[in-house]
């Protein structure tokens, strides 16, 4: 959901105004606030710390040029749009552009059937609560699939928004989500301790 | 972090996405390697220079220098053609007293126009240790007046009026470099100083815009000089209080 996005930080208008005026201290404060959300998002999409670091750098430089009016796509705050939403979109575009540049998206997606997979409605397996396991499983997914999963589940993007960001169709987004979710479920199938499995079955019986 | 049971219950009540969404949201945020800000800063159009900090052994010499420099600051604006002896004298003294410091910082004049008149000032070297406190900002270069949208005629008219301000600004900056010592800064003075630094930076940013009206440019330079004067005043007062073993903060609230 969007509300759970780590980007959802309300930035005071005064701080934005100072950053727009070119004040370095204000810009540094923005950098410090959004450093980790941008890096995390980039790492989820690119799957590599070095690339995520480059995405962070480029995103922040675009933030600077956007704030100071030299970028055509700078933050304007029209219609009450939050600053963090704009910055997140810059980071997403930067990370996806990096994948496209390296042809990782096209290499992974060539020949993928966009209509043949039904939506996965089942709940996540218990192992999804284990952050280390979930991170490892995400790391094993192809970059495009992982990106769709993260944007949908982690950032609350809609299929339409994902399709626009990835320059693909809505069907593509839905298909990747279904495939990715199933693949993730398979990767998260771990032998549970007897006690926890028993408790889980008991909860299911009472549900 | 939610446990598996939470996911199942949430899934029952709110659907599948809630469960996966929570699982993703529970993942810890990743932390980039250190030094990211420095790398970004280095790539910004006008990176801030590091401000040097005074070594302890220069404190006495600095007090003597200030005794000379403060009256100079009180003098009327210098003539554009006349040299500005204070920064040169100050830097020369500092160089002479420096001996074993590890770092060397070149104090460059803020304006190419000033540098042109004082070529030796561009290579003045002051020995001191380093810190990463930012200078008030990158100085808006004198040349910026020619880079904007202003016509050559307008620029030519504006430049003579601005010359005294350039000179005074340069003089104050040189004085500021000598006067500042973070070790003797109190919380209040550091806050005041930071605010004025930010103000100077904002003025510099405004001055770097192209196409400024000559009158606007002159106003900004006037504001810059005013801010620098206040900044120097704070730093000098700080040092004087420190030399007398008093606190700037206490001085602000004491009623005699």
Folded structure, characterized:
The complex is a heterodimer of chains A (207) and B (256). By secondary structure, chain A is mainly alpha-helical. Chain A folds into two domains: 101 residues, Orthogonal Bundle (Rna Polymerase Sigma Factor, Chain: A), CATH 1.10.1740.10; 91 residues, Arc Repressor Mutant, subunit A. Chain A is built from ten helices and no strands. In chain A, helix 7 crosses helix 9. Chain B starts with a helix and ends with a helix. Chain B has a two-stranded antiparallel ribbon with strand order 1-4. Chain B is mostly helical. Chain B is flat and about 70 Å long. Chain B has one domain. The longest helix of chain B is centred in the last third of the chain and has 30 residues. The N terminus of chain B is likely disordered. Chain B has eleven helices and four strands; from the N terminus they run H-H-H-E-H-H-E-H-E-E-H-H-H-H-H. Chains A and B meet through helix 2, helix 3, helix 6, helix 7 and helix 10 of A and helix 1, helix 2, helix 3 and helix 9 of B.
């Amino acid at each position: 959901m969007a509300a759970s996005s780590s980007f959802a930080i309300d930035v005071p208008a005064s701080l934005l105004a100072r950053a727009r005026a070119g004040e370095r201290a204000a810009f540094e404060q923005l950098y410090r606030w959004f450093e980790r959300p941008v890096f995390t998002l980039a790492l989820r999409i690119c799957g590599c710390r070095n690339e995520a670091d480059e995405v962070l750098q480029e995103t922040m430089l675009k933030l600077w040029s956007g704030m100071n009016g030299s970028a055509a796509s700078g933050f304007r705050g029209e219609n009450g749009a939050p600053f963090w939403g704009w910055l997140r979109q810059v980071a997403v575009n930067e990370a996806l552009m990096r994948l496209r540049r390296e042809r990782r998206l096209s290499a992974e997606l060539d020949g993928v059937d966009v209509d043949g997979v039904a939506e996965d409605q089942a709940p996540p397996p218990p192992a999804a609560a284990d952050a280390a396991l979930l991170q490892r499983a995400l790391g094993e997914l192809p970059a495009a699939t992982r990106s769709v999963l993260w944007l949908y589940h982690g950032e609350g993007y809609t299929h339409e928004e994902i399709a626009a960001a990835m320059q693909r169709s809505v069907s593509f987004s839905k298909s990747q989500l279904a495939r990715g979710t199933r693949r993730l479920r398979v990767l998260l199938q771990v032998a549970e301790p007897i006690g926890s499995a028993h408790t889980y079955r008991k909860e299911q019986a009472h549900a | 972090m939610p446990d598996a049971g939470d996911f199942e219950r949430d899934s029952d009540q709110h659907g599948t996405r809630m469960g996966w969404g929570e699982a993703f949201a529970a993942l810890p945020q990743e932390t980039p390697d250190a030094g990211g800000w420095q790398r970004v800063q280095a790539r910004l159009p006008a990176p801030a220079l590091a401000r040097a900090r005074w070594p302890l052994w220069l404190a006495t010499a600095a007090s003597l220098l200030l005794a000379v420099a403060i009256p100079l600051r009180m003098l009327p604006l210098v003539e554009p053609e006349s040299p500005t002896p204070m920064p040169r004298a100050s830097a020369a003294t500092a160089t002479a007293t420096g001996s074993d410091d590890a770092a060397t910082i070149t104090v460059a004049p803020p304006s190419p126009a000033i540098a042109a008149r004082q070529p030796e000032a561009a290579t003045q070297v002051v020995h001191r240790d380093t810190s990463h406190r930012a200078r008030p900002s990158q100085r808006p270069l004198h040349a910026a007046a020619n880079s904007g949208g202003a016509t050559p005629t307008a620029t030519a008219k504006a430049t003579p009026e601005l010359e005294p301000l350039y000179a005074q600004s340069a003089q104050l900056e040189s004085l500021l470099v000598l006067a500042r010592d973070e070790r003797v800064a109190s919380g209040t003075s550091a806050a005041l100083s930071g605010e004025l630094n930010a103000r100077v930076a904002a003025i510099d940013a405004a001055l770097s815009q192209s196409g400024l009206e000559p009158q606007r440019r002159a106003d900004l330079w006037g504001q810059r000089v005013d801010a620098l004067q206040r900044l120097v005043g704070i730093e000098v007062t700080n040092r004087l209080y420190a030399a007398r073993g008093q606190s700037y903060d206490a001085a602000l609230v004491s009623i005699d």
